[in-house]
Design goal:
The protein is globular, with a radius of gyration of 19 Å. The chain has one domain: 3-Layer(aba) Sandwich (Rossmann fold), CATH 3.40.50.720. With 319 residues, the chain is an alpha/beta fold. The chain is built from ten helices and 13 strands. Strands 3-2-1-4-5-6-11 form a seven-stranded parallel sheet, sandwiched between helices. Strands 7-10 form a two-stranded parallel sheet. A two-stranded parallel ribbon has the order 8-13. It binds nicotinamide-adenine-dinucleotide and uridine-5'-diphosphate (2 copies).
Length: 319
């Protein structure tokens, strides 16, 4: 029989966090979801509120948190460029002070702690695909730096708490992930293209659209989280979690148009600063250590995501 645990999920009312909370509850665990609702919303976890094993708490992780739990998943941080550049100082504080507070909490409790790191630690990579031992190519003073360097510093803190305080850490480097519960106005490419296609608006391709990304469906990602958390203490990561299937933004636009049956046309816009040209995870470690690899093809993941946005647009809820 599986052991029932008390699990803290910071950023639990966000896109990925909401799926993680649901998954942990399904496994019978008690879940404490902590969020300041900057980019997440109660709507994402509304269906979990009636579960007596679920508790939702408004709290900003840049402030200390005193609770009693067995495991911590630290996801709190705005993830889309529009949101994390809205208040860049707060973004760095969330990553760095948030990590310090959650690590301090884990240290006091002797709890295992997971960090949602990111492929952005590789920056605009000049090694392709990116293995975990690649140190990255990040502009430390650019407009993406608050996020990239914040997440890099958080990794540093995790590994220093591991070495200095023997904390049990699990660091995942997440590559672009998509699915229902993404914020419709977060400016990320999947949500933008789907919303534009459903509204019959032009699809905005930044630059020539030849830049690539690898898109992982959220269910696959959450499976990777849970497997990583379940590994023995010798496994710390960092470990890449993402889908190695690589697509240009033009290919993604074509797929979205085809699946929505939209008559939207493509419109080219300027490429944002420091926009990585290509990104694809090397998931050899995840395959070997976790026995994990994504199982959901892009088209199969886009369908429920399109359905989610279609319902959202029809329901006229304020987001
Ligand atoms: P999201 O914006 O939907 O979720 C982040 C959540 O954190 C939101 O609910 C937000 O309100 C909350 N939050 C932000 N600042 C906070 C603070 N100071 N205190 C408490 N809560 C705070 O984004 P997501 O896509 O679900 O990302 C979750 C995590 O995964 C993030 O740490 C992100 O960096 C990481 N990640 C995501 C992706 C992706 O493609 N979605 C890729 C790499 C890494
Ligand atoms: N912290 C917290 N909850 C706890 C324990 C610690 O939020 O249950 C915070 C604490 O406020 C501190 C941070 O975590 O700022 C780091 O704690 P640690 O014990 O590592 O360092 P110290 O308190 O010695 O600075
Ligand atoms: N992008 C685009 N049109 C949009 C939004 C994004 O062409 O409407 C591009 C963006 O320039 C980048 C890619 O899509 O090259 C992925 O962008 P996103 O913001 O989703 O993620 P990230 O750049 O953080 O990987």
């Amino acid at each position: 029989m599986r052991e029932i645990k008390r699990v803290l999920v910071t950023g639990g009312a966000g896109f990925i966090g909401s799926f993680l909370c649901e998954r942990l509850l399904k496994e019978g665990h008690e879940v404490l979801c902590v969020d300041n609702f900057f980019t997440g919303s109660r709507r994402n976890v509304a269906h979990l509120l009636e579960n007596s094993n679920f508790e939702l708490m408004r709290h900003d992780v840049t402030f200390p948190l005193f609770v009693e739990v067995d495991e911590i998943y630290n996801l709190a941080c705005p993830a889309s460029p529009i949101h994390y550049q809205h208040d860049p100082v707060q973004t760095t504080k969330t990553s760095v002070h948030g990590a310090i507070n959650m690590l301090g909490l884990a240290k006091r409790l002797g709890a295992k702690i997971f960090q949602a790191s990111t492929s952005e630690v590789y920056g605009d990579p000049n090694v392709h695909p990116q293995p975990e031992d690649y140190w990255g190519h990040v502009n430390p003073i650019g407009s993406r730096a608050c996020y990239d360097e914040g997440k890099r510093c958080a990794e540093t803190l995790f590994f220093d708490y591991y070495r200095q305080h023997a904390l049990r850490i699990k660091v995942a480097r997440i590559f672009n992930t998509y699915g229902p519960n993404m914020h419709p106005n977060d400016g990320r490419v999947v949500s933008n293209f789907i919303v534009q296609a459903l509204k019959g608006e032009n699809i905005t391709i930044y630059g020539d659209g030849q830049q690539t990304r690898s898109f992982c469906y959220v269910d696959d990602l959450v499976e990777g989280f849970v497997r990583l958390m379940g590994t023995d203490d010798a496994v710390t990561g960092p470990i890449n979690l993402g889908n190695p299937g690589e697509f240009t933004m033009l290919e993604l636009a074509e797929k979205v148009i085809q699946l929505t049956g939209s008559s939207s046309k493509l419109e080219h816009k300027d490429l944002p600063a420091d926009d990585p040209k290509q990104r694809q995870p090397d998931i050899t470690r995840a395959r070997n250590i976790l026995g994990w690899e994504p199982t959901i093809q892009l088209e199969d993941g886009l369908k429920p995501t399109i359905k989610y946005f279609d319902n959202l647009l029809k329901s006229n809820v304020r987001v």
